[in-house]
Design brief:
The chain has no helices and 28 strands. By secondary structure, the chain is mostly beta strands. Strand 2 and strand 3 form a beta hairpin.
Length: about 350
């Protein structure tokens, strides 16, 4: 299916880049809560509202594998396990999914085998988000007020993060909808999360609680991200004013509030469900989207160097992910259960090959 609603891009990057359609998937579920490319950009995982996890072949645009949790509870987020270059074929292609039945399910994708099913023991918890540490030795899942941290090898819970330091932050008081491990090797103990309680919490795994916070961002989905160099934090808020903000991680100070519309235009406001940096060290590009107030629709945009490179209209965007820097790939999942995949390529470049819509 063509991108009939993909507007031409503009701004300072227009002479260097083109945003071109790749493909649109069939609806794999009623909503696409989470999308993630694997490290090689040959597979795209998507999580749905009925527990479906679909794996799409990026070269063909077709569904290659379908993974079901059996119970039909919504799968809120997926995350690929980091892979070392020396990893054997049998240990590659591992995906973990967080579900509202309080379970994490780890899959070997190409065999469709559920390797492990685990979660908070003896408690009725919903899980809304999941992320792996930089080295893949730990994974964390966000619930209501708490973050559960697991050892990757044993799948045993090693920490339950909750509360604050009683001085600068009390921790979370409501659902945690997004979290990210610090992706630099010098801070493996650092974790950042956001949610419904209008706060972003900074956690120290050594202390077992939040050690500082940013108050203001209203995170209602996969709308918190760290640049690869670990220096900048991106938040997308479900609100009319300042929906996209960039923060200095070390100081906790706001660096920029990005306007959603051109100067002088305020309506209709778009409230964010997702916001993601590109995966180059500086996070040079941002993909974001959500629902528009009062009109029942939504929008998604791609930003670079302070300019909007492209817009999708009449599209309520719930999730987004960039491929590796060399691929130029970008995926966006929608309220209609479809995934839009596109490419950012140089004006004189053909870019990476994907299926054509």
């Amino acid at each position: 299916q063509p991108f009939e609603d993909l507007n031409s891009f503009s701004g300072a990057m227009a002479s260097k880049l083109k945003l071109t359609p790749g493909f649109v998937t069939d609806a794999f579920d009623t909503e696409a809560f989470s999308v993630r490319f694997n490290a090689d950009d040959n597979f795209l995982a998507a999580a749905g509202s009925h527990g479906t996890v679909s794996i799409f072949n990026v070269a063909t645009g077709q569904e290659a594998y379908r993974l079901k949790n059996g119970a039909g509870h919504p799968t809120k987020q997926v995350c690929w396990r980091p892979e070392k270059d020396s990893a054997s074929v049998s240990t590659r292609g591992i995906l973990v999914a967080a579900s509202t039945d309080g379970r994490l399910r780890q899959w070997h994708v190409t065999s469709r085998r559920c390797l492990e099913e685990f979660g908070p023991e003896g408690e009725d918890k919903q899980l809304f988000c999941v992320d792996y540490s930089h080295d893949g030795t730990r994974l964390a899942a966000g619930a209501t007020r708490e973050i559960f941290v697991y050892d990757e090898e044993t799948k045993k819970q090693v920490l339950c993060l909750q509360g604050g330091d009683s001085q600068t932050t009390p921790g979370h008081s409501s659902r945690i909808l997004a979290l990210r491990f610090q992706q630099t090797s010098d801070e493996p103990w650092s974790l950042i999360s956001g949610g419904w309680d209008n706060s972003v919490q900074f956690w120290d795994l050594r202390a077992g609680h939040a050690v500082r916070a940013i108050f203001g961002p209203h995170i209602c989905g996969d709308a918190l991200d760290l640049s690869k160099d670990g220096k900048r934090l991106l938040t997308g808020s479900w609100r009319d004013k300042d929906p996209i903000e960039i923060w200095d991680v070390g100081q906790g100070e706001r660096l920029e509030a990005m306007p959603w519309r051109s100067q002088g235009l305020n309506e209709p406001a778009c409230q964010m469900y997702t916001a993601r940096f590109s995966k180059d060290p500086e996070g040079s590009f941002i993909a974001a989207g959500g629902s528009c107030a009062n009109d029942g629709g939504g929008e998604a945009k791609v930003f670079g160097s302070g300019s909007c490179l492209g817009t999708m209209v009449r599209f309520t965007c719930l999730s987004a992910d960039f491929g590796s820097p060399n691929s130029g790939l970008l995926a966006m999942g929608g309220l209609d259960g479809r995934i839009r995949v596109m490419r950012m390529v140089g004006a004189a470049s053909e870019g990476p090959k994907t299926a054509q819509g």
